[in-house]
Every structure is written in C-alpha cells, then in structure tokens.
C-alpha cells in the first residue's frame, strides 16, 4: 500500500492493541489495511522490509505464534539463519485501567544458540491478554501477534 506524502503510521502501544491486534484476532476489519500478514519466522529480518508496503526503519506485521513443541507453551522464534531472543522484561499495555496486552522486546541473533551472534535488528512483539480459551478462539486455533520490526 502506498501512503500519501506526509503520512506517518506511528500508533501508540494502546492503539496497536485496541484497533489493530484485537480486530485482527477477532476477524474484524482494522481501521486501515496497512499491516500485512506474514509468517516472519520463515524469513530473516533483512528480508522482511520487502514484505511490508511501507516503512523505512520500522515495519509492522501480523504473524502467527507457533509453539516450539506441540504440547509446550514456548513460542518457536527460529528463522532460516538465526533466532529471535527475548530481552528485558515484558511491558504491560493498558487502556485506561484495563490491562489489554503485553509488549516484548526481542533481538535477532545469527546462528544457533548458544553461539549466536547478536545483530542490530530489534523486534517488539505485542500480545493480547485474555484467557487461554479466548486465545484459542482467535482465528480458529491460531494465535496471532502484532510485531514491529526495527533496523539500525
């Protein structure tokens, strides 16, 4: 999607959760169809800017959250030539006083753990807060995350 001159997509964390991730997870239309659905773990981070319709150093994607093990809870964050590693603590996202989501920072490492080489690629993962039953109803049995990818 081409954005008009001067347009900047710079939503707050709350706006990303309320107007985009919640809508996507419940199959409702988003305010604007500017965030593509891409399984980002099938690509390395430097390949992803071409999968987005806009952005220079910041890109947004909806992506499925797949588990590392069928009966486990850990997400699989491996890519073709590396992996995303969580860093820091999760940040709670609120709408008023209601806890609506979580933001997690991840850094991309080339190679395989524990000998991966840290890169400058950073990703923020947004997840909805809700019961497991609600999470399993989202888009069938697929859980969805909204991701913001940064390059430096």
Automatic annotation (TrEMBL):
Pfam family membership, one: NAM
GO cellular component, one term: nucleus
Keywords: DNA-binding, Nucleus, Transcription, Transcription regulation
Compartment(s) of residence: Nucleus
Main location: nucleus
Domain NAC stretches: 3-150
One annotated GO biological process: regulation of DNA-templated transcription
Keyword check for Transcription regulation: yes
Keyword Endoplasmic reticulum: no
Signal sequence annotation: none
A GO term, aspect molecular function: DNA binding
PANTHER family in the record: NAC DOMAIN-CONTAINING PROTEIN 72-LIKE, PROTEIN CUP-SHAPED COTYLEDON 2-RELATED
Name used for this protein in its record: NAC domain-containing protein
Source taxonomy: Eukaryota, Viridiplantae, Streptophyta, Embryophyta, Tracheophyta
